Amino acid sequence: xxxxxxxxxxxxxxxxxxxxxxxxxxxxxxxRFKNLLGACRSVKVKRLFFVFADKHAHAWRRHLFPDDIDxxxxxxxxxxxxxxxxxYKISVPADLLPESLNPDGT
Length: 106
Hints:
By secondary structure, the protein is mostly helical.
């Protein structure tokens, strides 16, 4: 269900709702996520999944490797006033960037 929720960004769902949903995934199965991400055809969804996963740093995240998942190539523009995430090559709200990449501290 989390991948479907991410797919609704940014038009039908808010980043805050997805962020809150990710908070509740602490005990999720990395094997299940790997299978779901492998079957997912949306580059946007897969890249955003890793953006949120990195932000929340749940224990299962260390078992998922972005290099094992086809994240496509080239940059993606998702939000107009967003910041570019250099690792996942997608524009996101500034608060989703790692603190080291977000000089505003927001």
